[in-house]
Amino acid sequence: MLTSRFVSSMRRDSTRTFFEASPTAKLLRSDYAPLILDFLQRIFKSGELISIGQSDLRTRLTGYQEELHETEPSLLPGPPERYLTQWSDAGWLQRFLEATSMEPQFQLTRFAEEAIQFVDASVTRGTNLVGTESRLRLVIDTLEDIVRGASASPDRRLEYLRAQRASIDAEITAIESGKSVQVYHPSQIRERFQTAVDLLKALQSDFRAVEERFQSIAREVQQLQASSDDSRGHILGHALDSEDLLKQQDEGISFFAFVSFLFSPNQQAILRKNIEEIQHLAALADQHESLARVRRMVPSLLAEAEKVMRTTARLSGTLRRLLDARAAAHRVRLANVLRDIRHHALRLRGAIECESIQIFVDVEAEIGSPMARTFWVPPQDFDQMLLTEQVIDPRHAQAMASAFAKLQRLDLRKLRGNVREATVLGQSETLAGVLERWPLTGGVVELLGYLQIAHDDCHKIDVTQIDKINILQQRSMSSTLQVSIPRIVFHPKAATREMATKPR
């Protein structure tokens, strides 16, 4: 009885703490919760973005506010920078710096992911199919898999394999004897498909929790090393083992097993084949949004896995740099000791000599190598120029500004999105095929953008074959410009990043 009361009290305290301190609960209870969740859902989930730059996110929030103020001008009246700062401070957005970007990046935190997932499940519960039979079968199969995988008995494993083989043989015999093949009813197909889509949504929302768990592990190791007074040998061993420590946690074991499974070429081929066949099932013809999500599943999961792996790589580098910091502290301590020795030696320089042993410290001694001397280089000559006052021609400046305003922005993210959409089912596509679906609107500059993407992302560039691309002139919309370029074949993302995405 006392144990039951204690457990009930603990649960009550945990629930109270969740509603008082959790960023997830604060987001759901916010006055602007519907607007915040709708905006974050639109940008990160519907837009399938993992992270976004500060200027781009600010521009999109400004557009969202303008759209909102057309009907309700009193909602979100402040500047977008203030809301982005508030959402970051509240724990709904994570602001970080990328080595490849010149501006801060934003991504959802696990608390925002939990709130979006909760609201999405609650809103769609009345419209989506509630699958009870498929969920029960999934639970039973999972429990059976746990019992089978946890048993080390060869007899039990052989018993299961023989039963499975007997069931398969019986089904083969029945089909060969002319019996009809048992297929799922359309309602069973839709039920199982909805269960798979729900699991996919939950999986895509779990990546932020995995990433934050890795960061908390790294912080624990940093605190342990910062407060440790062990010898340098122990510190060295601890720093070198910290990367393995990330992989030995439950989250690390599960995540790297997931990465190994996802990046397997055989598993990718099977998965892409199943996704392609699912697209043509008549029972799922009206599931447009869910089919699109499943069709983009492999590129989306690959991108999420790469993001988490880049985070773990940065954390490993940070942990290794702790050793350099500790070594620097040892050097500072040694320098202080040498300074004290020199100070005491200067104090004893004028003292009366004694017959005891004396130590002479030459602090000015330096060890150098003649090979370290650089070769003589003649001094650089500078041309003397007579400075004159610069006069700005207003007409020339206006003409230059007008020409600059007419320049079109090259959106490499949009071009990469076209390439990703063209190869989403695992097939390769030529540049000419991509341009048939998305014609050039930016002229030769946009064509150069595709060439740059092909070079940077390691797609195939065949210089032995030449393709001719017709570009519509923007000034005279009736004439075309024909450009000859090497044949470019865009491959699916997994085929171009083998060395960069294989797990250790």
Beta-strand portion reads: 5-15%
Shape: extended
Number of helices: 20
E-strand count: 6
Describe what this molecule looks like in 3D:
The chain has 504 residues and is mostly helical. It has 3 domains: 2-109; 133-149 and 186-329; 412-501, no CATH class. 63% of the residues lie in helices and 7% in strands. The strands form 2 sheets. Strands 1-3-2 form a 3-stranded antiparallel beta sheet. Strands 4-6-5 form a 3-stranded antiparallel beta sheet. Strand 2 and strand 3 form a beta hairpin. Helix 6 packs antiparallel against helix 9, helix 9 (186-226) packs parallel to helix 14 and helix 10 (232-248) packs antiparallel against helix 14.
Question: Short summary of the structure?
Answer:
The protein has 504 residues and is mainly alpha-helical. 63% of the residues lie in helices and 7% in strands.
Summarize the helices and strands and which ones pair or pack.
Elements: H1 2-21, H2 23-28, H3 33-46, E1 52-53, H4 54-69, H5 80-89, E2 93-96, E3 105-108, H6 110-124, H7 133-150, H8 154-176, H9 186-226, H10 232-248, H11 250-262, H12 265-278, H13 288-295, H14 297-348, H15 394-405, H16 412-422, E4 429-430, H17 431-437, H18 444-456, E5 460-472, E6 480-490, H19 493-496, H20 498-501
Antiparallel strand pairs: 1-3, 2-3, 4-6, 5-6
